[in-house]
Amino acid sequence: MGFLTALFLLFLLLISTSRAKYEPNWESIDSRPLPEWFDQAKFGIFIHWGVFSVPSFGSEWFWWYWQGQKLKPYVEFMQRNYPPGFRYQDFAPQFTAEFFDAEEWTNIFASSGAKYIVLTTKHHEGFTLWGSKYSWNWNAVDVGPKRDLVDEVASALRAKSDLRLGLYHSLFEWFNPLYQQDAANAFTTNYFPSSKTLPELYELIVKYKPEVLWSDGDEDAPDKYWNSTGFLAWLYNDSPVKDTVVTNDRWGYGCSCTHGGYYTCSDRYQPGHLLKHKWENCMTIDMKSWGYRRNAPLSDYLTIEQLIATLVETVSCGGNLLMNVGPTHDGRIAPIFEERLRQMGQWLKVNGEAIYNTTAWRAQNDTVTPNIWYTSKPKEGSVFAILLEWPEEGSVILNEPAAIQGQTQVALLGHGSLQWEPVKPSGLRVFLPQLSFRWMPCQWAWTLRLTGAT
């Protein structure tokens, strides 16, 4: 029996070693196929939450703008509202999260129609939302909430929804002495990544098993300094999420839009045309900040019409949309964010067929009629034309599709079949139904499904 057991173990070892292994270099790392679920998902929610949610003034970069750059609005804000000698670290006990309810958050996120979330586990301030043994007392278990906020989000998400868990992690920290020492040495030393960044990354993956790892904060340091390819080789070969995890492109200076699982390129990236590589548009409902701002006027929040237009353009050009909300220091999703998320969910209930599991079509937008974007489902023979505006004249011309009399069928999602006629030199005119406002299938943008068109 012992011999057979040993033989079986040797067989398993041979199988494991014969599997394709990713080497710690970009050519090998970039050869890994992106797991299909990510492209099919199309829409996720970004969550920026941390000690910066306490001052909730200006930006989530509050500490850097106040102490690093000493910008006048931030310096004067502190002088007006806090005593002399007050440090940024003194905000941490006020990061209380007393109203934080992970199940309530999950309900809101699921209602948006999103398929994944990405939670900031540590921003550039270095404060971790889990009790990392590498962050000493600068974490949510030792100070502030005294709770493992990452675990609460992950557990609620998996118990109460089909949402996939994503975790954001900043590689660097503004004021960490080890990072500052490495930077002063032109990154020829690696005290900070070896003792802080990499141990935290391994800890996050092993403990929480996220399916998105959203790296950020590579700054001016090269990927060799972060040992990015070494970590990613482990992630893709041996980690508990090696087959499903997706990663972005922020792994060192020069990596953005060049290396990684999918490209983010820059914040609020919107190329306006089809890219050859999978990409994601990470953007904010509050146009001026990722973190919550108490001083944000209503005019700084994108309307639902603007958000839907951003989603439609992004998906039409082959990207995913990662839409950000910033919770308050006490753990609430502000009503303005909740309203936008639930409105997006209402729209997707009617029009999700044109978003989820789609691929980019041969044309992204219409060349004759403005504000029309296309997506497709080739296996079903369907092309979707998404109208961001309802035509006043009762019909709309689609120039790009080639329709065939007696074969092409057109339907308005949420309503039913529509009549159409060919137009010269190409395209078709679709006659829209005369509906009162209450009978419209949705309120903000409308989708025509064409089958049997080329």
From TrEMBL:
Keyword Glycoprotein: yes
One Pfam assignment: Fucosidase_C
Key words, A-Z: Glycoprotein, Glycosidase, Hydrolase, Signal
GO terms (BP aspect): fucose metabolic process; glycoside catabolic process
Domain Glycoside hydrolase family 29 N-terminal: 17-353
Site (May be important for catalysis): 282
Catalytic activity, EC: 3.2.1.51
GO-annotated molecular function: alpha-L-fucosidase activity
EC top class, as a word: hydrolase
Role according to the record: Alpha-L-fucosidase is responsible for hydrolyzing the alpha-1,6-linked fucose joined to the reducing-end N-acetylglucosamine of the carbohydrate moieties of glycoproteins.
Quaternary structure note: Homotetramer.
Protein name: Alpha-L-fucosidase
Source organism of the structure: Xyrichtys novacula
